[in-house]
Sequence to fold (312 residues):
Amino acid sequence: MICLLSIQLDFYFTAISRVYTRYGKCYTFNGNKTTSRKTKQGGMGNGLEIMLDIQQDEYLPIWRETKDETSLEAGIRVQIHSQDEPPYIHQLGFGVSPGFQTFVSCQEQRLTYLPQPWGNCRSTSKEKFPGYDTYSISACRLLCETNEVLRVCKCRMVHMPDLCKALEHKDHLTCCFVVVVFFQIIFVVNYETAQVYLSFIPFTLSLFFPRDNFLVLDIFFEALNYETIEQKKAYDVAGLLGKICMGLFIGASILTVLEILDYIYEVIKHRLQRLLRPQKEEKKNKQQTSTVATVGLEEMKAKVQHTLNCNK
Fold:
């Protein structure tokens, strides 16, 4: 294997580490966060370039019993993921064929999801997650598969996380549901292939040996930036009230709203006047009756006094 990083030819064995997946032993480049390899610019020729000999003549035959677990393609399988996410290459990887040079451009995306109650999302990624340092969808799926295998077979596959002894952690044997983490980093991958020039490689077995065994993989960033996709609430309380008002008063101005309020005030005032009017009329009638009676009594007193004076 020959690696070319940032146009410096070297064997970067310190940046390559072994990792076990469903396909067996695989290799991860730049998987250590403490000693990360960085590039200074984007574009082709400024990333990782690898030439591999897949040794197709050493492939194991496909038996009837293992046809579901054995890969049918010749080449390698690649997955580009963040350093916090374990590889889930059997479902999220893409294939690279021998005899071609494959150019892979990737762009980083940072996704931020809303937590509950807006969705079934994990509110934080810093909570302890068995077998992994950071929660991710791939880690959750691997943990769920591990729990099910432990429950049925009382063992685990080599690529599954170590959960210590199952009898000491009975809570890990229950099935879990995959939820989305509130913050996630993914890479959007675009790739194309070209016939690789292999005439410089000496071949002694056959004319097709270089074409069937050698491939070149060129991975680079399209640009040294990232795209942020953030979920936001469609409506808050103020926005919802404003949206409802716009639905009731389409094209209405402030003056129209004030006129409607004035109309409501006049209607309420009229209703109150109708309710209070019978009481006022009854009180007025009582006052008039009392006045008439008082006037009549005074006249009678005056007449009686006048009559007495005449008799004298």
Notes: Confidence is low (pLDDT under 50) at residues 6-11, 165-169. Residues 241-311 form one domain.
